[in-house]
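Teaching soon. Got one?

===
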Amino acid sequence: MSSDVRRRLYLVVATLLTACSRADPTAPVPQLRRLSAAESAWKEARLTNYTFVGTVYCFCLSAGQPRLVSVRNGMVVTVTNRRTGESESTRFQLPVDSLFALIRREARDLPSRLEVTYDAKLGYPRRISYGQQEVDAGGVIVIDSLRAEP
């Protein structure tokens, strides 16, 4: 085999191997690109005052309870249990901006365990599935009925 043919064969193999590694579905790059696009859409919407119904599913004690979350100036100000009507602590509830940070961390640490569905118009995460149930309880966060407030 001539050196020219060997060199071309080497280039073809190297190109194929590189393409295959980039197409790896567990690689965080595609998740981070989708995250970046969604976060840009969210920032362009400039929503600092909004409400949403959020539900967290995990092995936590009160998981699975839908909560009405009110955000003012980017901070969670009230959380109300939708089933009981009772006020709850705002301590563990995240505004949308903080969910982007959670997604970014999960995309880097456990990209194969991360699935996110973003809102097509506003970019906020409508559903986040992350973590490992057997290790860290994992979780699913669902956001419904996000509504801008004056």
In short: Helices lie at 3-22, 28-45, 96-109, 133-136. Residues 8-27 have pLDDT under 50 and may be disordered. Residues 34 and 144 are 20 Å apart (CA to CA). The chain has four helices and seven strands.
